[in-house]
Specification:
Distance between the termini: 24 Å
Oligomer: single chain
Structural class: alpha/beta
Radius of gyration: 23 Å
CATH architecture of the domain at 6-25 and 39-192: 3-Layer(aba) Sandwich
CATH superfamily of the domain at 6-25 and 39-192: Response regulator
Number of strands: 18
CATH topology of the domain at 6-25 and 39-192: Rossmann fold
Length: 591
């Protein structure tokens, strides 16, 4: 196989996680995002869906792109040598995603490894966190370029052209770079995309997200958002400030539906449309339902706020199988309003009741810990509210509540991060360097970058553990999980409490050598707690357990030739690629 032009590397959150002893806490009951890091486990081993879009976009114009999921390989194979894998590559450039701030340590560590073996090969970083910290990233010699913005397909293409031809990249939109004299240049952002229909249509929706061992195909309808939730790093405020986006860019409802139907032709997985199909207006939502009418698989829709029964009836009429996800955040309307969600409990309860009565297969109801105006008692009252809600609205397992802390960080660029005092937050770290160091702290409590006026970090930890146990017990009582599952989780929580208390005692002495000895001794137990829920978690909606297909160093080698030929033919049929374009499943995420 010929050398790729671009290798996209996905780093683990903490590069040395296999050697480090860091207590991330019990994660089995914290869904959809585990306790410490985005996506799965302690590694954050599911890479951003934008990778698939970038790969297909570049391949359509002739560039060869490969994705190497270092986090996944390192997690699955204790003997996988990331240094050796990187050293064996020889592309024109390396790209590293720095989308989530929780990858601050891993992304820069991987960049340093690249420079160790390929000192002359450019290293490009991109993502939301990279955009926020683009100036500080240029202080690190292992970073050559940072591409800012939420849509870097075209700028990345222009940058690769400059690298191929030896041109100065002074006209690449949104590029922060260093001249030969060491001067840092910040190119202005280009105009944001106004429609996602101009992007490759296949692979962004082909990507798979994974909760435990269960996959679901994701169809992204928008870049940008209409909402201004206080702690969200993808709010309208953040998109406007960081990416110059004044309004979301949408994929047309017909194209979105076609993408999802294309997925269904090849896989039986459920499909998930994150966000809210009504945020683009009810005309958009109804066009999408019309285009999806009769879709045979399970369609999971997100909702930002309560909706009328009439709309849910139309959803049920169009989709034989549907599910909902609602992020309510808190049972307390005052807390919810402080977050930026101004609706009543009665309204959301009516939406849940209507959905269940119309045959909704499940409603995932998400709550959070670490919110403004929320104290310990409020968190535990949320758990009690979940108990009451399941008793009143249905005890058949279709209503499934979850609660998780805002961890490990308040998102950079969110309103709460930029204006913490006004929001009732106290930030403990602000700079990239501080967050990078924090990720190596011995417990997740010390990784948290915030406290609130109402809860210290100790309070947040106590509330998290107590709420996790209480919610597991009530879920067992309502027959959502087996009783032994709740008992195992409670034992895991108690083990985590004991480990954290022991680590805290040693930290209080200030004896660094003793701390390292203690962590070394406790590492087997710490690893056991960290991984307790990876294989035994319960997904938020019922479905058969699928066998995951692992990715490989060169994904095309792991996919049967007949499958590649079929997908090539399918793309050409829909004018996705020219007859002579190289095609593979590089944009597909198997995680």
């Amino acid at each position: 196989m010929s050398e790729p032009d671009l290798v996209l590397l996905h780093p683990p959150s903490v590069y040395d996680f296999r050697q480090e002893a860091i207590l991330y806490g019990p994660i089995a009951d914290l869904s959809p995002a585990p306790l410490a890091f985005p996506q799965r486990g302690v590694t954050g081993d599911v890479y951003p869906l934008g990778y698939s879009s970038l790969a297909e976009y570049l391949e359509q114009v002739g560039y060869r792109v490969h994705i190497l999921n270092l986090a996944r390989h390192m997690f699955d194979d204790p003997h996988f040598d990331a240094d050796e894998a990187i050293a064996a590559l020889n592309p024109l450039a390396f790209g590293i995603d720095f989308h989530w701030l929780s990858h601050a340590q891993g992304a820069l560590a991987v960049a340093q490894i690249v420079k160790t073996f390929h000192p002359e090969t450019p290293v490009i970083l991109g993502g939301f966190a990279a955009t926020y910290y683009h100036r500080e990233l240029m202080d690190y010699p292992q970073v050559d370029y940072v591409l800012r913005g939420d849509s870097i397909e075209d700028p990345l293409l222009h940058l690769l052209e400059c690298l191929s031809l030896g041109r100065i990249p002074d006209l690449v939109p949104g590029l922060t770079w260093r001249t030969r004299s060491g001067h840092v240049v910040e190119n202005p952002l280009g105009p944001p995309l106004t429609s996602l229909d101009d992007l490759p249509s296949g692979d962004e929706v082909w990507a798979l997200i994974c909760q435990m061992s269960y996959p679901a195909a994701v169809g992204l309808m928008a870049r940008g958002c209409t909402q201004n939730c206080l702690t969200c790093g993808g709010s309208a405020y953040t998109y406007r400030r960081l990416h110059g986006r004044q309004a979301p860019a949408y994929r047309s409802p017909e194209r979105l539906a076609r993408d999802l139907r294309d997925v269904r032709r090849h896989r039986d997985d459920p499909v998930y449309v994150p966000g809210d199909v009504t945020q683009a207006g009810m005309d958009y939502a109804y066009c999408f339902l019309q285009a999806m009418r009769g879709f045979p698989g399970l369609v999971r829709l997100g909702l930002f706020q309560p909706v009328p029964r009439k709309f849910l009836q139309d959803v049920a009429d169009a989709l034989p199988r549907f599910a909902l996800r609602i992020s309510m955040d808190s049972h307390d309307a005052q807390v919810r309003q402080a977050v930026g969600k101004d609706y009543s409990n009665l309204a959301v309860e009516q939406t849940i009741a209507d959905a269940l009565s119309l045959g909704c297969e499940h409603v995932e109801l998400c709550f959070a810990i670490g919110l403004p105006r929320q104290d310990y008692d409020s968190v535990m009252a949320t758990v009690a509210y979940c108990d009451d809600l399941m008793s009143r609205l249905g005890d058949d397992g279709r209503l499934q509540p979850f609660i998780t802390p805002l961890a490990p960080f308040l998102a950079p660029g969110s309103i709460a991060f930029d204006q913490p005092e006004r929001s009732g937050y106290r930030l403990l770290f602000r700079s990239l360097a501080e967050h990078r160091r924090a990720l190596l702290a011995p417990t997740w409590k010390h990784v948290l970058n915030y406290e609130t006026e109402w809860m210290t970090r100790d309070d947040i930890v106590r509330a998290t553990y107590d709420a996790t146990v209480a919610l597991a017990r009530l879920r067992a009582r309502h027959n959502l999980v087996p009783a032994d599952y709740a008992q195992e989780l409670e034992a895991c929580v108690e083990q985590a409490r004991r480990l954290m208390a022991e680590i805290d005692r040693v930290l209080a002495t200030g004896d660094t050598d003793r701390l390292q000895d203690t962590l070394h001794t406790l590492k087997p137990e710490i690893d056991e707690v960290n991984c307790a829920g990876l294989d035994n978690g319960y997904l938020v909606f019922p479905m058969k357990k699928y066998t995951r297909r692992p990715d490989s160093l060169w994904p095309t080698r792991s996919i049967p030739r007949v499958w590649r030929l079929f997908k090539n033919w399918w793309r050409r049929r829909h004018n996705h690629l020219d007859e002579n374009s190289e095609s593979n499943l590089q944009g597909t995420v198997f995680s």
